[in-house]
């Protein structure tokens, strides 16, 4: 059974995920090293956005991807079909990451999660299942949100209020918008070893104006992707969003603007 997804499954959102993967790739993949891995299990492929990047960045890699949502799975297959050069290097199947008994794990030597555990009510169950079925000594790499780390300058009260409401909303649908801060504990409690956890710092100011502008626009789009779900659940209103949008537009024009956010990344051995 699928849990509620904070961003929804609209065509607009599916396109946003593709753009997001490109914008975030230079930060996320600074610390993800799969050069010594041959067969990757990607948990939660979504629309295939990360899968495409992985196939590009690691040309030796074969990927088995699992995705629970039929809607996302269909879009992932469509997106990947646009890259016929990768056709023999991946397969994507529908599966619940908490029940991987039917997965062929032969040869898998690495497992990747990117923005997945935040949406799962019981992330320990998924980590325990992966550890149960994947061969010993395989690498696991996780990238996750830590939404309380957001900082903007000059202060943006409407944005920060909306952001806090989005955090509360995600908790209300059994997600965890700060799960990144708990990665070490989750991995330790489920029996992984050689655990390392590091912040993936995104700090943008006038030293990189183009990147800052790109990222602020991305962040505005990210917040907008929550809007319909948050309105329906009573966590915001459209008039509140208009204040958020106005503040973000002003911030994008301010040469003194600062953006700081640090997702968390963890690696471990099974």
Automatic annotation (TrEMBL):
It comes from Hassallia byssoidea VB512170. SUPFAM superfamilies: S-adenosyl-L-methionine-dependent methyltransferases. The keyword Transferase applies. GO terms for molecular function: S-adenosylmethionine-dependent methyltransferase activity. The keyword Secreted does not apply. Transmembrane segments: none annotated. Signal peptide: none annotated. InterPro entries: Methyltransf_11, SAM-dependent_MTases_sf. This is Class I SAM-dependent methyltransferase. Residues 41-136 form the Methyltransferase type domain. Keywords: Methyltransferase, Transferase. One of its GO terms (biological process) is methylation.
């Amino acid at each position: 059974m699928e849990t509620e997804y904070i961003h929804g499954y609209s065509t607009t959102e599916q396109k946003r995920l593709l753009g997001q993967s490109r914008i975030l790739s230079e930060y996320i993949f600074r610390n993800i090293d799969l050069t010594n891995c041959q067969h990757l299990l990607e948990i939660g492929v979504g629309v295939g956005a990360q899968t495409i990047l992985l196939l590009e960045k690691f040309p030796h890699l074969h990927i088995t991807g699992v995705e629970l949502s039929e809607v996302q799975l269909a879009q992932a297959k469509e997106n990947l079909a646009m890259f016929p050069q990768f056709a023999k290097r991946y397969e994507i199947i529908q599966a619940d990451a908490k029940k991987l008994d039917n997965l062929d794990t032969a040869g898998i030597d690495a497992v990747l999660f990117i923005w997945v555990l935040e949406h799962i009510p019981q992330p320990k169950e998924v980590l325990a299942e992966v550890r149960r079925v994947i061969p010993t000594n395989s690498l696991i790499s996780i990238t996750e949100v830590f939404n309380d780390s957001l900082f903007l300058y000059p202060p943006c009260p409407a944005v920060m209020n909306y952001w806090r409401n989005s955090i509360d909303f995600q908790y209300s649908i059994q997600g965890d918008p700060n799960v990144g801060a708990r990665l070490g504990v989750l991995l330790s409690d489920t029996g992984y070893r050689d655990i390392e956890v590091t912040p993936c710092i995104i700090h943008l100011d006038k030293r990189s104006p183009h990147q800052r502008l790109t990222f602020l626009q991305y962040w505005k789009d990210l917040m907008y992707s929550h809007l319909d779900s948050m309105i329906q659940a009573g966590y915001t209103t459209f008039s509140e969003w208009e204040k958020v949008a106005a503040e973000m537009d002003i911030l994008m024009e301010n040469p003194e603007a600062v953006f700081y956010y640090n997702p968390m990344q963890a690696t471990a051995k099974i």
